[in-house]
Amino acid sequence: MSNNLQISTVSSCVPWQMPVDPTVYDRRGLSASEWQALELDFQLSVKTPRPIDPLAVRTALARFDAPLADVFHLRHQGSADLVHDVQHLFRSEMGRHQKTFWEWTPQEWQATLCPTPALFLKRYGKWENVRMTVMDAAYLLGNMSEPPSRRHRKERRECRSRVLWPGTGACTMHQIV
Length: 177
Fold this sequence. Notes:
Number of strands: 2
Helix content: 40-55%
Radius of gyration: 18 Å
Mean pLDDT: 76
Shape: globular
Number of domains: 1
Strand order of the largest sheet: 1-2
Number of helices: 8
Order of helices and strands: EHHHHHHHHE
């Protein structure tokens, strides 16, 4: 019996590159109009009766959408349904931390991620795909050098399945052909 299983690997001499380059995005702090839009976005999310223009809010905060969408689509290629949930979660957390996600500390990333998937679901009402995007964003946009917590073993295995976390096996992107 012959074994027809082939393993293709990327050459080890090819250096790993970040799949998202954070320097191409506008990483300034929040402007006064963006702060106001974050406050209005929060009011929209709690469904206050105030007359608020959701399009104006999204327009004012649009510069934060592209990097989050780019990170989301690395893992969830072709899946656009949850990207708006990710963007809304990040807007909410920027309001809570009172700074852009570019400026978050490792502790703020940890707080946003929550220690367990169950706590994340309880806090945000969002499922695992959104939480995985928070982990990916922590590394790709937040200058985290390793997965946000050593306790997240399952998530680290999931991260290894994509070209996201160097040093965890992901940078070579082994595939069974």
